[in-house]
Amino acid sequence: MYSLLLALIYLAFISLGLPDSLLGAGWPVMHVDLGVSVSYMGIVTMVISGGTIVSSLLSDRLTRKFGARIVTVVSVFLTAAALFGFSFSDRFWMLILFAVPYGLGAGAIDAALNNYIALHYSARHMSWLHCFWGVGTIVSPFIMSYALTNSVWNEGCRIVGYIQLGIAALLLVTLPVWKVNKGKETEEQKSIGLTGALKIKGVPFILVGFFAYCAAEATAMQWASTYFVEVKHISEEQAASFASLFYIGITAGRFLSGFVSGKAGDRRMIVVGACVLTCGLILLFIPSDDYALAIAAFVIIGLGCAPIYPSIIHSTPGNFGAENSGAIIGIQMASAYVGSTFVPPLFGLLGKRLGFEIMPIYLLVFVALMIVMTECCFRTAKKNKAQPPLPEQV
After folding, report:
1. What rounded mean pLDDT belongs to the chain?
2. Radius of gyration for the chain, computed over Cα atoms and rounded to the nearest angstrom
């Protein structure tokens, strides 16, 4: 039962990753069919991010009331419904409409499952959980490519929608399996809420650190192709294929880090990941017309990013207590989505004005901020544990 539940959670995270790269893969054709500018994808992603931020902030309350299993199942059904809505959309406003349930479902399942794994499973499973998210992001572009070759982009959304529906149905019929960890649940405990979580020493540090990391990760993901075109002067078609290097690096890195994260510990994994990430950025500083160095750089950047996200999440119960982790992880997810939503567009504006060669400098700023803030968080959490609790007042 224990292993079956873990497999179901992995499957649920594949379902979380599947839609994440689908829109970007199909957008070059979608925006033409819908009669809108290519820049309008930013509007869709903003609406999706808005939904994820809202549901992330509400996830602790929802999980405590309904349980992680119900939140997970309902969230996957929501994303499936949204994808079917995308597949029937022939107007841009329809995409915006269905982006709302997609964002709400994605944010809720992300926060709920991350907290569930952090509470009940070891660090290696957190790494592998996010590795399976990477599997989903790698598969979707191939599905969209198949649809564009043999049909239309709507069919790509419909295929992924059917996959999501199948996963949701499987999760629904296997709900009793989740009872294996019922004795460890903390869902009935009183929620500290947003204000209470922010008052805990060290929480603001980790929120800024997580914001900075996700800002760097999303910028590298979204602007890799543009970097190859504008800086290395290769064709757009070739650059599009090179964009997958980051996803491959981060997915492979999370698979490998799962084997060592338990012994190394979350704090050390974050530091090691940041060092590897920095090495990748240093390669981008080397002036060369040969794009082989840039290819290696983005793979290494992905490898460096791999352990950071899961390690930050997994460290939350240990740093702030299991009773507080649900609320704090929900806020962390919201902070992550703010970073991944607003910082990459800022890089686009700066890149157009100053040149896309600034990418390694831009990313280094956020990596440095992440290292400083996460270290401040771990040190503060250590001091909190060392201090004896205050005596109760009569």
Report:
1. 84
2. 21
pLDDT tens string 31-55: 888 998 877 877 888 888 888 888 8
Q: Provide the CB-side half-sphere exposure for 255 (13 A, CA).
A: 9
Q: What φ, ψ does residue 373 adopt, rounded to 5°?
A: -70, -40
**Domain containing 320 — which CATH number?**
1.20.1250.20
Contact between 238 and 227 under an 8 Å Cβ cutoff? The reply is no
- Chain centre to alpha carbon of residue 221: 11
- Count CB neighbours of 22 within 10 A: 26
Q: What is the pTM of this model?
A: 0.80
Q: How far apart are CA 39 and CA 385, in angstroms?
A: 48
Band of residue 371 on the pLDDT scale cut at 50, 70, 90:
very high
What does the alpha-carbon distance between residue 289 and residue 304 come to, in Å, rounded to a whole number?
24
Token pair of 210 as six digits: 């997580």
- For residue 200, give the 3-state DSSP assignment: coil
Q: Are residues 136 and 269 in the same domain?
A: no
Token pair of 88 as six digits: 């029937």
Q: Is residue 333 part of a domain?
A: yes
Q: Are residues 69 and 158 in the same domain?
A: yes
- Structural domain boundaries, residue 361: 196-385
In a domain, 225, yes or no: yes
